[in-house]
Amino acid sequence: MGLDLLFKIAGVGILISVFHTALKQAGKEDMAHLCTLAGFAVVLVWVVQLLGRLFTTVQDVFKLF
Question: Which InterPro entries is this protein grouped with (predicted)?
Fold first, then answer.
């Protein structure tokens, strides 16, 4: 789970940086920024889901709520 997610995030980061560079050199800076923002949103959703699972696990372990 942890290492898998780390490689996914790294892969998205590399892919987005390649797209950003290619689009910026093509003169489409607005699309490059949009691509970067979309990649950030995808990674943010993954991290938020992971944090949700962490909080649920902590609640279960300590019998909170």
Answer: Spore_III_AC, Spore_III_AC/AD
